[in-house]
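Bug #2210: token dump truncated for HNH endonuclease?
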Amino acid sequence: MNNRNLGRADRMTVVLERDGTHCTWCGQDLTGLAVPTTDHLIPKVKGGPAWLENEVAACRRCNGQRGHLSPAEWLTECRGRGWHPDAERVRRVLASLREAIEERGGQRRARQYLASQLRRLNC
Ligand SMILES: [Zn+2]
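Reproduced locally. Full output below:
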């Protein structure tokens, strides 16, 4: 999964096929009224690359409310709200991002952030 030139709609299709059609954070079904978005696990402002390995499906509400919180912080916040976030998906996608960065190189800022997130998520 290394096509970085896909358009927005195609990226969404790939992500939904990979992870299923529910919001990573609140579990809401994204095939109904909720508007699906792709949420960057490592925020762009923290150096997160625009790769599929850094994206998960989220409803627009969660994507907006998360802001720049880290995945670990936001998972805690989601649980505090009584939701059942898909922490396993987050771990899996972050692990695939680690592999992608190892393969492709670069992404110095993202590497450090990713390492600390993986530690917090016990990967
Ligand atoms: Zn949601």
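Output looks complete on our side. Residues 87-104 form the longest helix (18 residues). Marking as cannot-reproduce; reopen if the truncation happens again.
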